[in-house]
Amino acid sequence: MDTLTKEKTGIENDLMPLLGTDYVEFYVGNAKQAAIYYQAAFGFQWVAYRGPETGSRDVVSYVLQQDKVRFVLTAALDPEHEIAQHVALHGDGVKVLALWVDDAEKSYNDALSRGAESARTLETLTDDDGEIKTAAIHTYGETLHVFVERKNYNGVFMPGFAARTPNKRYPEVGLRFVDHCVGNVELGGMNKWVKFYQEVMGFNLLITFDDKDISTKYTALMSKVVSNGNGWVKFPINEPARGLKKSQIEEYLDFYKGAGVQHIALATNDIISTVSQLRENGVDFLYVPDNYYEDVLDRVGEIDEDIKDLQKLNILVDRDDEGYLLQIFTKPVEDRPTVFYEIIQRKGAKSFGKGNFKALFEAIEREQALRGTL
Q1: How many domains is the chain built from?
Q2: 187 and 72 in a common domain
Q3: What is the DSSP string of 155-201?
Q4: Does the pLDDT at position 275 exceed 70?
Q5: CB count, 10 Å around CB of 115?
């Protein structure tokens, strides 16, 4: 079934007020090369760096930014380092979903008091630009939530990092902020983690999709979406459902070797321009057959965009009671079929494209079949 609940509009009644997504940190095998990919393909700007030149002897990090989207790409310099071991097991992937808060100590202690497991105790980092406080808790798999308090900091990112201006600046593509981050968990794990976000983090259950909503002839999955009080942070949680063949969730779990972040949805104000530039930059997207567009306007009604432009770029469209949305999904951006991206433009809609699930999942199954994992 599909249930949409009304989002709160303020943070004053939140169990744990969040100001948004502060950054997403990836553990990768080669941070320098990954940074070039995200700059050249996705239009990010290199803004800060940590490495031997800044006093970090065992870890390097590249901080990339585009509007309010901030990625941190981190790699180890020693094969025995825990980051290198993480990459050896999981491949390149998301390690940290950092949450911007007004009070890191309170957020951390409140989370622990409601059952969270500590990952890093409170730490205060200082330099000439002020101070940042951070603390971290565990969530699904080996993923962490880091609470980041930066109200007393004026630097480019945080202490320990030096500002950087690249030799070449790639054109931005119009990405604005993180709309949502999707986690894949093992069979039976979805309700456990939904309960965690509700009881520990104070999130609301926003939407529930069962295996009848998200299924094809061969595969299915179940999903629940949780959101913080002001709706700025949303986490869909997926688990596999039984089907005739291996689902995309099972494929992810097999290749990632456990639960983790499946995809990150990045918002834009002009999806036609953004996707056009991404395609020009070499980003690969899932393919949806032309017959998807034959009756899409009968289903979603009038839209501002020319359907021919959407068809040319393979952009999907769906509607809910609040408006409509436009979305498209990349193919995996790693050698392992794990992490991918969604580009989304919301024109009033607060849902997640239920009307596109069948077309989307059939597209994913075609890719699975090519990989021999369906």
Answers
A1: 2
A2: no
A3: SSS-TT-EE---SSPPPP--EEEEEEEEEE--TT-HHHHHHHHHHTT
A4: yes
A5: 11
| 200-251 per-position pLDDT tens digit | 999 999 888 765 665 566 556 788 999 999 999 999 999 987 775 678 889 9
Kindly report, residue by residue over 20-52, the tens digit of the pLDDT. 999 999 999 999 999 999 999 999 999 999 999
CA distance 202 to 145: 14
Q: Could you list the residue range(s) of the whole structural domain that residue 355 is in?
A: 175-371
Does residue 135 sit in the same domain as residue 234?
no
CA distance 106 to 202: 14
132 vs 155: CA distance, rounded Å: 10
pTM above 0.90, yes or no: yes
- The Cα–Cα gap between 99 and 333 comes to 24
For the chain, the first-to-last Cα distance in angstroms comes to 26
Per cent of the chain over pLDDT 90 is: 76
Cα of 171 vs its chain's centroid, Å: 22
Query: Per residue in 60-113, pLDDT tens?
Result: 999 999 999 999 999 999 999 999 999 999 999 999 999 999 999 999 999 999
Domain match, 277 and 303 both: yes
- Spatial contact of 226 and 198, defined as CB atoms under 8 Å apart: yes
What angle do the packed helices 248-256 and 357-371 form, to 10 degrees? 50
Instruction: CATH number of the domain at 67, please.
Output: 3.10.180.10
CA nearest to 73, candidates 23, 34, 40: 34
* Alpha-carbon separation of residue 160 from 73, 78, 84, 132, 226 (angstroms): 15, 19, 20, 11, 33
Q: Is residue 93 part of a domain?
A: yes
